[in-house]
């Protein structure tokens, strides 16, 4: 496979015929079973039938599946071909600037139509909804990446899409809304007066910045109220992690082309899906004895893996979703309004949480200004302006590369550049103007939130 590349290559491109034919399901290989979701009112385990009002059949089967490989349907692969396989790139200039013996590779997901990894799941979810005869999808979006991705995918499969966008991001990122509308979707700032969940928040805090938890409550409430409408979630759930593994499966083939094998795999973690997508195929090999470290990187302001508890919790603020066993800050936790909207979520994918419990990965956190410094350095060397979320991965890569230098180790680092930052330039402007600050973490607020975790007898 390496006949078209040389040791001098910078870019490793897979021909279209190497687009993976199956997603990889880590649940098949985890040392223990995935804890089932539980009913939000009774705390009893829930099966696929209980979730049928929210999700289509294909998605529900995947959510509970323990099959190791699940075929990517032909119509989904057909759409993936618009931008996949995505490139693997060696960050040679960054290596040189850091004067590190480490080799740094990144998988670039910013080449998708929406500019991030999120269409990998949006396209699959739109397909399964169309298969079930669904006409309308509701969803939430933080920074706007997921809303744009579902708007794009829904339109291709003939679905109308209604997106509840966290208010602070709606105000910060007007072009995200414009992109959703360009793809034919409707975008509403959350909390909104359209739902009981939104009205309750607005009554208590009219100036609410909103949060992903609130926006999820609104989208779920609307999906449950109509038979032709279902809900789509852009991260956290098992099926979303599954769809994203197309990233890691491609990366493995491309690393082979580069004659390289990662010692370290790094991704930023919000709900956990892009990290899962790159790292789960490597965890499969790790479970078979391969030596590889997987590192999830989160913001210090929303430290789900580094400070959260492993517990059953709601996925939303309105306590409408099933309870999931995950690392969580508590569904009442309100993270400060940072520029990485996509990382402002109180919970973590149950599968990523299990990977953490089983010692398959590590986690660390950084402040946003140090991440932006790393992102600006990266842009000036490698040309790509990273999404604020992705900058967290880059900061960790930088630290690992400098550790390699200090220790004289020529390790190979692979990270996921989950998206570009072209719609996030206000954040860069704030950073250059010295207006970006690091909010000290409020441990008392976290404790108060954790004290209200639902009590679930397991
Ligand atoms: C949404 C988003 C994230 C965070 O979501 P995960 O599910 O943790 O991947 C990270 N990067 C980008 C560019 C995003 O849009």
Protein described:
It catalyses: (1S,2R)-1-C-(indol-3-yl)glycerol 3-phosphate + L-serine = D-glyceraldehyde 3-phosphate + L-tryptophan + H2O. One of its GO terms (molecular function) is tryptophan synthase activity. Tetramer of two alpha and two beta chains. Pfam families: PALP. It is an enzyme of class 4 (lyase). The chain has 458 residues and is of the alpha/beta class. The chain has a domain of 235 residues: Rossmann fold, CATH 3.40.50.1100. It is built from 19 helices and 15 strands. The protein has a 7-stranded mixed β-sheet, sandwiched between helices. It has a 4-stranded parallel β-sheet with strand order 8-7-6-9, sandwiched between helices. Strand 10, helix 13 and strand 11 form a beta-alpha-beta unit. Helix 4 crosses helix 16, helix 11 packs across helix 13 and helix 12 packs across helix 13. The N and C termini lie far apart (49 Å). The mean pLDDT is 95. The structure holds pyridoxal-5'-phosphate (PLP). The site of pyridoxal-5'-phosphate has 20 residues, from helix 13 and helix 17. Pyridoxal-5'-phosphate (PLP) binds next to helix 13 and helix 17.
């Amino acid at each position: 496979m390496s006949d078209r590349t040389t040791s001098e290559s910078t870019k490793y491109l897979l021909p279209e015929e190497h687009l993976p034919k199956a997603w990889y399901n880590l649940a098949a290989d985890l040392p223990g079973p995935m804890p089932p979701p539980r009913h939000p009112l009774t705390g009893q385990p829930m099966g696929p039938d209980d979730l049928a009002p929210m999700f289509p059949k294909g998605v529900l089967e995947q959510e509970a599946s323990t099959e190791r490989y699940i075929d990517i349907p032909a119509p989904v692969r057909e759409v993936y071909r618009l931008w996949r396989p995505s490139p693997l790139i060696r960050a040679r200039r960054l290596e040189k600037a850091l004067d590190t013996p480490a080799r740094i590779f990144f998988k670039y997901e910013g080449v998708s139509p929406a500019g991030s990894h999120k269409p990998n799941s949006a396209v699959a979810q739109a397909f399964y909804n169309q298969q079930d005869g669904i006409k309308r999808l509701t969803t939430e979006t933080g920074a706007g990446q997921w809303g744009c991705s579902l708007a794009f995918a829904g339109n291709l499969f003939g679905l109308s899409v209604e997106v509840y966008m966290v208010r602070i991001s709606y105000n910060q990122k007007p072009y995200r809304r414009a992109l959703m509308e360009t793809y034919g979707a409707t975008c509403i700032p959350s909390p909104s007066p359209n739902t009981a969940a939104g009205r309750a928040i607005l009554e208590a805090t009219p100036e609410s910045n909103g949060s992903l938890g609130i926006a999820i409550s609104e989208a779920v409430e609307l999906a449950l109220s109509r038979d032709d409408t279902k809900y789509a979630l852009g991260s956290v759930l098992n099926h979303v992690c599954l769809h994203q593994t197309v990233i890691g499966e491609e990366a493995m083939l491309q690393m082979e082309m580069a004659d390289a094998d990662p010692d370290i795999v790094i991704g930023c973690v919000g709900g956990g899906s892009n990290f899962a997508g790159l790292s789960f195929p490597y965890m499969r090999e790790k479970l078979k004895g391969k030596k590889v470290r997987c590192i999830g990187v989160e913001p210090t302001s929303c430290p789900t893996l580094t400070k959260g508890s492993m517990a059953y919790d709601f996925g939303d603020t309105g306590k409408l979703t099933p309870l999931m066993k995950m690392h969580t800050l508590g569904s009442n936790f309100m993270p400060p309004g940072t520029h990485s909207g996509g990382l402002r979520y109180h919970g973590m994918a149950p599968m990523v949480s299990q990977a953490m419990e089983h010692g398959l990965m590590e986690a660390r956190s950084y402040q946003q200004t140090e991440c932006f410094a790393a992102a600006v350095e990266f842009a000036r060397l490698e040309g790509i302006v990273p999404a604020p979320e992705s900058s967290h991965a880059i900061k960790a890569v930088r630290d690992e590369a400098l550790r390699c230098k200090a220790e004289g180790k020529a390790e190979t680092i692979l990270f996921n550049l989950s998206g570009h930052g072209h719609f996030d330039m206000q954040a860069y402007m704030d950073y250059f103007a010295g207006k970006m600050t690091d909010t000290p973490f409020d441990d008392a607020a976290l404790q108060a939130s954790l004290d209200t975790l639902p009590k679930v007898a397991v």
